[in-house]
Structures are given as structure tokens and as C-alpha cells.
Amino acid sequence: MAASTPLASEASHPSPIQFYRTTCVKKLAGSPSLTSIPSTYAFTKAPQEDEAVSEDPEDPIPVIDFSLLAYGTPDQRSTIIQELGRACKDWGFFMVINHGVPERLLERVIEGISGFFDLTEEEQIREFEGKNVLNTSKSVTSFNTSSDKVFFWRDFLKLIIQHPHHHHFPNEPAGFREILLEYSKRSREVAMGLLKGISMSLGLGDTYIENTMNLQSGLQVLAANLYPPCPEPELAIGLPPHSDHGLLTLLIQNGISGLQVQHQSKWVNVNSIPNAFVVNVADQMEIMSNGKYKSVMHRAFVNEKATRISVATNFGPPLEMVVNPAPELVHPETNAPAYTGIKYGEYMELQKSNKVYGKSCLDHVRILSA
User: Fold this and answer.
1) Which 3 state secondary structure label does DSSP give 299?
2) What's 335's DSSP letter?
3) Burial of 369 (C-beta count, 10 Å sphere; 0-12/13-18/19+)
4) CATH assignment of the domain containing 206
5) Is residue 359 part of a domain?
6) Which residues does 222 contact at the CB level (< 8 Å), separation at least 6?
7) Which residues, other chains included, contact 178 with Cβ-Cβ below 8 Å and sequence gap of 6+?
8) What is the total count of domains within the chain?
9) pLDDT 10s digits, 36-73
10) Count of C-beta atoms within a 10 Å radius of residue 53
């Protein structure tokens, strides 16, 4: 692999925040005169994106009862670990209920995100300006605002936590920082519990992923998305089809539909259960499991009536960690390595510097069979 990227080196030398001063989509959507979207937001969909959306009740998105994983009897834990493994293998997406995170805390996170986006652009920027933080950024409309030709119909806030101590959360609106601190702690507990179960389902032992990925010093990336009403939702996109960069992503939302996941070549609407996490397998898990558990493409669409808010928290190893297929899951004759090793920081930089579409970043580390 190439030498360490700028992102990877920031683990020891945090860089100042960067801001992109494009127009906030919320401000644009709120204009009384807006009847059509600007051409910079008109997204050209790939042919496969026009496929019908499946509503098959015979193949619902799996539901995992976290309480049985964490506190169940040995038989209950064994059963739920098997269910978790099937969910990762067959779907790459599942919902988690009875996770122990208070419903009111989830509501306050959504309320806080809404309040943050109610601030003026100047107030939002002031929350971070002058802070020397690890690639923590507040941005709008797109992943690569400086280079993308078409913007997404969303505003977003991205925050990176480098465990065990490095984080920076905004102080406005009042109490928002404390809410995010508590939520990041509680959601991490759920993620670590799920990763123990996933590790067991792979036959690796409950602490294998945690220890080999050094997750005690890992990264937690929180991306809060606001998708305002759009006058031409058929022309815009909230987020195009993509996979996530880390090991696992936990998502909460405000009850407005907009998330779709690709399953067996069809798009499926994700109508989440109240007070549940929507969880998906991410790219580093696919690499580590040598392709047994594959990250799954998902996308966000917009509507013309309601604002959708989602908060996705991605959990991964430290930036300098080289992620390889687990040796225990590799056999030179029957199950050869399917991916080359790559530093997590380099992978994040790769995703950041490429067009966000599909699973193109994984193709850079995929070993093609002869």
C-alpha cells in the first residue's frame, strides 16, 4: 500500500476543521419561491436504481433482541448468536430491539440535531471554528463538496470520536453536547455487544474482533443527516447507493421513511420499529470476515412533504490499524484471502477522495480470482 495518508497521520497530529460554504439545503428548501430544484441537485440515476422496490412480507428485515444476547440464558444466547450470524450473512442489515438505551435519550438526540440545524450557518460554523480537532467537520449537501458536480438533498453534521478521550461536540443548542456524550457512550455499549455476538457467530470467540481490531482505541464516526422536503423528489437524492467504511453502523431516525437497502438485487424499504436501532454490516467487517459477512448497499431518498432526520454512528478500529481477513477464516486451498490488508485511515481517505457510489472502494482491496 501507499504511505500513510493525511488522514491516518492526523491520529497524532489533529488538523483544524474545514468548512464548506455552500448553501444549506434546509435554507434552500424553505424558500417560498422554490418550485423546482437547482440543476446542481439533479441526480442522474443509474439504470439499476429504477428497479421496483420490494415490499415482500415473506422476507422481512431480521430483528435481533439485544436483551437475549446480553442477559439471556446460555441457550437463548446461542440461539440469538445464530440469528445474528444469519442476519449478517443473508441481509447485512437488521433491527435491534430491547437494547437498553432509553427511548427519551434517542428522542433528545433527534431533537438536538433538529435544533443544531435550526442555527444559522454562521452559528453552526462558530461551534467549531478555531478548534484543533481530529478531522471533525461540519459540512453540507455532499461528501466531497469541493469536487462533486451534483449535490445531495441533505445537510449533515459529522463528528469523529477517537477513543478513549478525543472528541469535540458542539455546545449549541443548549444541552446538545451532554446529550451527544451520553448517546455516544450508550450506543457504543450496544455496538460492542453486537460485535461480541458477531465474533461468536464467526466461530472466533466473543472478544476476537474487539481485541484484534483494538476497539478500545477505535474510532466512532457520528453523521447526522437532515433531509428537507423537496419540490421534485424524483430528481433529487438524499444519498446514492453506498456501503459504510467501518465494521458496523447503528442508525436512529425520526420516524419519516427514506432508507432503502438492497437485498437480493431488489430495493427494500426500511420502516424501522419505534425505539429500535437499524444496524448494518460495513466494509471493514467484510474484509475481516473474508467476505462471509458482506457490507450492503443502501440509499436515502427524499419526499416533498416532511423533513427526515437520521443519525448514523459508524464503529471502526484505530486509523493506523491494518485490517486483514482473519487468519482463522482463511485457508489457502478452500478459502483463499479475498482482500488485501489496508490501514483503516487509508481506507477512509480512499472513500473520501472517490465518488461515493456502490462499493467501489472495496474493489481497490479486493483480490480477483484467476
Assistant:
1) strand
2) B
3) exposed
4) 2.60.120.330
5) yes
6) 158, 159, 160, 161, 180, 184, 311, 312, 313, 314
7) none
8) 1
9) 999 989 987 654 555 556 555 556 899 999 999 999 99
10) 10
